Amino acid sequence: MNSANAESRLYQGDCPVIPYFEALSAIPRSSGHERAASDYVAAFARERGYEAVQDESWNLVIRKPASPGYEDAPTVIVQGHLDMVGEKNEGVAHDFLKDPIRLRLEGDFMSAEGTTLGGDDGLAVAFAMALLAAGDAEHPPLEILLTTEEETSMKGARKLDPGLLRGRRMINLDSDREGILYVSSAGGVRAYHTVPVAWAEGAGVGLPGRLRVSGLAGGHSGDDIVHERANACELLGRILDGLRKELPYAVASVRGGLASNAIPREAEACLYVQEVYWDQAETAVRAWEARFRTEYAVADPQVRVTFEAGERRVDLSASHAEQETVSAGTGAEAGPRVFSETSKRALVDSLLLLPNGVLRMDKAIPGLPRTSTNVGVVAMTADGVRFESAARSSLRSELDAVVTRMEALASALDCAFEASDYYPGWPYRMDSQLRDIFRDVYLREHGKPMDVKAVHAGIECGILADKIPGLDAVSYGPDLYAIHTPDERFSISSVERTWRYLLQVLRELKV
Predict the structure, then answer these.
(1) Structural domain span for residue 480
(2) 83 belongs to the catalytic site
(3) Among this protein's residues, is 496 annotated catalytic?
């Protein structure tokens, strides 16, 4: 791909941001695999004569000199992240490490075909490229900062050498609501709970069946956790607990969710149930679906629970270890491996008891969660089941308390536990010239006040403010919807307005 020519295939308007987003979407850039995207944007900058520095984490810093008349203005950092969350609908053939995102344009919205779009935070990258290419824009000296692995661990920001940056004003473009300026965010940590699995011989366990929870809305575990949508992994645990009180069954595998910071939309378990109990199991599963339809009639009305017999390939390891194929009708003769009763009990108890959802609301800011967790991934490993959760809080002591609670649960269940990738919250700054300019320009351009808010999601501003003394930062962006899900989309007209607004803000930053 020629980085000098970002020709649009779908968008026919005059906003330069969207064609660059389309070009970027051809480059796979899941978290931990951003090198190609970093190289692409670096080449784009160097072709235009700008200095571009890449570090060992493939973070990228690009310097664009001030436009005439702005040489003495303070440097402004324009920041976003290169990576995206890779989620797809069941049955969609897409490899996020190899395949381009297939874009779709319908009316005012751009989306993807069956996968996440990557507007979070590909739009920030596209805004940065448009700024680099804008020869007539009026602006102070710019430092474009594009980080890596934001969606998983914020490793890029944490590893960044602050000496690469001269600016003390920063515009973060990782927000998803036009007209809302974010000025504070929660801190967080990744927590890992591992159930060790002892295997038992499966003779006499019955017929294989696939227990599946699906149809959920999902969403961002920071932005959308307040909506109290269903978590597929948690629902699966409730069903498995209910079934064990009614009938015997064996577990051969379990899985759910794709990312710790995305609310799981789907989860499933491969069970073995003796034929004499099969009808009872089906009846119980139907009752659970009806129960969930009632509980989530508003928050997640499309929830589905199914239990189907048939051929089933059981993934015994996430690392492609030994697999076994079992078929309905073969029964005990197939001799599948299943969890021991002790392992099954630890699995179900973990699904039931790991904290999930909003744990405490912020009483000082209506509608804002203060502390939450999201059990985002349940995956088989070679010797166990690994749960990955994202815990967030704007109060460090409450975040520590959640981690302590999870560690105590793991100990009680004889499971392993570790927590890592802590990132700090972003505290509200009392005096912010940058915030004042954003508000003034918005009021003048739109004739109404801008909302200034805190957000429960983690934003790299907290890490960067820790690294750069005196950093004055804000976070802004166009309208994005259903991020971290295959329903992700952004508003074309909002991107166009945000581009014009950003140029006007930069024009005002002379002092």
Answers:
(1) 17-186+425-508
(2) yes
(3) no
